[in-house]
Design goal:
Blueprint lengths: L2 H13 L2 H8 L3 H15 L4 E3 L4 E3 L1 H28 L4 E7 L7 H12 L3 E7 L2 H9 L5 E5 L7 E16 L9 E2 L9 E3 L6 H13 L6 E4 L3 H9 L5 E4 L10 E6 L5 E9 L6 H12 L8
Parallel strand pairs: 3-4, 3-5, 7-11, 8-9
Antiparallel strand pairs: 1-2, 5-12, 6-10, 6-11, 6-12
Helix pairs in contact: 1-2, 1-3, 1-4, 5-9
Length: 299
């Protein structure tokens, strides 16, 4: 049994007229009659009682009409689902992100994706940049939101935004009331940092900025999570340098001051495997993410 034959049968049964059924199916009436006869032979039963005046369903025909409608509806649903996946209208995207992107970049991109492509499901996982790149290469992640990556073998890296770096300090700090400060002015400060082994890309970027300003970044204390670092700053135990999106975290006596150094920015990029960039759902995410204004102060 072919779906085409079943569709011919259901149409004739609904019209109870071969001429009208043929017109509805856009085929010649003799050809339709031949197909129905062939179908009956294959099933070894009569589906229609035909006279010169009318067409009626047999008992077998009535049973097949009910079942045939169900089968055709399920087949149409299956084809529609396949087409949706093929066009990226539905599906699953596995997206990784660095923790510092969770406050502004992740919410903005996820909301925009949901509005444009509500059928695409997203599985989010927080991870470091290097772990994301490994997971993308292994096919565990489809997309990564990473920091300070220029290139990676077999992976496409597209910058999304250049985020200013800020220095977080206690409200009693002499620089707390200023709009900006130069890195060189912080050379004698007690720096709080995240462990290099945990956030190596951003750590190395900040260390290079300090080196360019004429001093070496030395950690007086380390903390794995940004909220912990900022809590220690609010406790007046030192200063720390963070991406501007962390400004969303408010604590008593915590102040954020801009760094005026020209290179005091952090680049957030979207990364994905080069051989998967034509997957529709990935293309939709890229279109949505790159169209957003993710600059500091937007939204």
């Amino acid at each position: 049994m072919e779906l085409r034959q079943l569709r011919y049968f259901v149409t004739v049964a609904e019209e109870m007229n071969f001429r009208r059924a043929a017109e509805r199916l856009h085929i010649a009436q003799p050809a339709l009659s031949q197909q129905i006869s062939k179908f009956e032979k294959e099933l070894r039963t009569t589906l229609f009682e035909r006279t010169t005046r009318r067409v009626e369903l047999t008992d077998a025909g009535r049973v097949l009409l009910d079942e045939g409608r169900r089968v055709l509806a399920e087949a149409d649903h299956a084809l529609a689902a396949v087409e949706q996946v093929a066009h990226g209208e539905v599906g699953l995207l596995r997206i990784g992100f660095v923790s510092s992107a969770a406050l502004r970049i992740v919410p903005a991109t996820m909301l925009a994706l949901q509005q444009e492509w509500p059928g695409v499901q997203v599985e989010l996982s927080e991870s470091t940049t290097d772990r994301q790149l490994s997971a993308i290469a292994d096919g565990i992640l489809d997309i990564g939101l990473v920091r300070e990556v220029d290139r990676a073998d077999g992976i496409v890296v597209r910058p999304l935004t250049r985020e200013p770096l800020l220095v977080a300090m206690h409200s009693s700090h002499p620089f707390a009331a200023r709009e900006s400060v130069r890195l060189v002015e912080l050379r004698d400060e007690r720096f709080l940092t995240f462990p290099r082994g945990q956030v190596s890309r951003l750590y190395d970027h900040i260390a290079a900025l300090c080196h360019h300003a004429g001093f070496r970044l030395e950690a007086a204390q380390e903390a794995v999570q940004f909220p912990t670092l900022l809590g220690l700053v609010a406790a007046n135990t030192g200063v720390t340098i963070v991406p501007a999106s962390l400004r969303a975290l408010h604590l008593p006596d915590l102040r954020y001051v801009a760094l005026s150094d020209a290179q005091a920015v952090s680049t957030v990029s979207v990364a994905y495997r080069a051989d998967r960039q034509q997957i529709p759902a990935i293309r939709h995410f890229l279109d949505v993410a790159t169209a957003l204004d993710l600059s500091e102060g937007s939204g």
